[in-house]
Amino acid sequence: MVYSELHGIISIMASKVILTTGANRGIGFSIVQALAQRSSDLTLLVASRSKDNASEAVSQLQGLGLKADFQPIELDVTSDDSIKSAIKEVKAKYGKLDVLINNAGIAGKIAEDNSDFRDTYQKIMNTNVTSVALVSTLFLPLLREAKDPRVVNVSSARGSLTLVTTGKNPPTAFTAYSVSKAALNLLTVEMSHANTDVEFQAVNPGWCKTGFNGFRGPRDPLEGAQSAAELALAPKGQYKAGFWAWENETMEEVPW
Ligand SMILES: NC(=O)c1ccc[n+]([C@@H]2O[C@H](COP(=O)([O-])OP(=O)(O)OC[C@H]3O[C@@H](n4cnc5c(N)ncnc54)[C@H](OP(=O)(O)O)[C@@H]3O)[C@@H](O)[C@H]2O)c1
């Protein structure tokens, strides 16, 4: 092995490798942007179910003048084959994963006549819960190759039983979505208890202006992205495993 190859491998081993799902647009894109703004010494895997969209997002991030090492990667979180090939690619190129950010998510409203009830519930639960559980579980061996492995799940205030039961969350027409985020919160806690060598966190990005809500959210997605970026890069032990949001330039706990 020549010196330059060895040096390349050593520098990859030193810099953190962080994969964000659904990073081609919306909050996922902003999470990658926020990470790169905090440090240029990162390998940021921009995952999308479309490799073209991932590559396009990488070009946009580079166009912002950000200097991190952005790499496009194809990952449809609902496809077992896609998950396995993404893992194979990360293993071959980096041999580890420092942080997995499970951001990809969907919502959906059930038709008035309930004709799509089961289908809509299943799609939302499959993407927002089952796929996060499977992606996280299958990436665990690569996460364990990192010094300080972390998983950050992008949840929602809609998943907080406390905020719902105290009336702080107004009623919603998107019940399946809220149920999925409450389940994602419990998944975060259960996986944390079952895998004490990996840090599991949930974040609430707040109501952000993305395609998800027809760009009606008041919050800049880059602001919404800060909680995930902070938890990905904070010194070990700075934040206990929990449910977090970025408010007024600082991290605040969200009640479960
Ligand atoms: N926006 C808000 O106000 C808000 C508030 C609280 C929580 N959140 C959460 O934040 C996360 C991101 O939401 P967003 O507002 O950025 O939504 P968005 O603009 O609709 O983006 C969703 C992202 O998820 C990806 N995705 C969907 N299904 C996927 C799959 N099967 N495999 C891989 N990627 C998939 C989409 O990819 P394509 O481009 O291929 O469709 C897209 O990149 C979600 O988990 C959402 O629940 C959002």
Automatic annotation (TrEMBL):
Q: Does the keyword Oxidoreductase apply?
A: yes
Question: Which Pfam family, any one, appears in the UniProt record?
Answer: adh_short
Q: Provide this UniProt record's keywords sorted from A to Z.
A: NADP, Oxidoreductase
Similarity comment = Belongs to the short-chain dehydrogenases/reductases (SDR) family.
What is the protein name for this chain?
A: Uncharacterized protein
The organism encoding this protein is: Zasmidium cellare
